[in-house]
Amino acid sequence: MNNWKNADNKYAPITLANGWTVEIDAPACIGAGPCTAFAPNTFQIDEHGKAGLLDSAELDTVEAIMEAAQSCPLMAITIKDAAGKVLYPEM
Asked: Is the dihedral of CA 40, 25, 91, 32 positive or negative?
């Protein structure tokens, strides 16, 4: 059983301890999976072939989570800082 951060919406934004938010654009996600290799405690492919956000995200470093976002071939992962500024993908 997966331990999704938000059981009602596993793609919904989560907030990390440093204030960053991580969100998955589920319609854009194709389940390629490199995010799961870079940050396996944060991302997991669900039963629909989409990346979801796990409740163990704090076990990955923010650097690993950023690398995971940057590895997504469709830029389906958005990371914002504590002030809401988009860190990735850069605007």
From this structure: positive
Q: Mean of the per-residue pLDDT values for the chain?
A: 95
Give the chain's domains with CATH numbers. 14-88 (3.30.70.20)
* pLDDT(72) > 90: yes
- The whole-model pTM stands at 0.93
Tell me: pLDDT of 1 over 70. no
Query: Helix (H, G, I), strand (E, B), or coil: what is residue 24?
Result: strand
Q: Is 64 exposed, middle or buried (0-12, 13-18, 19+ CB in 10 A)?
A: middle
Residue with tokens 């071939």: 73
User: Residues near 79 by Cβ (< 8 Å), separated by ≥ 6?
Assistant: 20, 21, 22, 65, 66, 69, 86, 87, 88
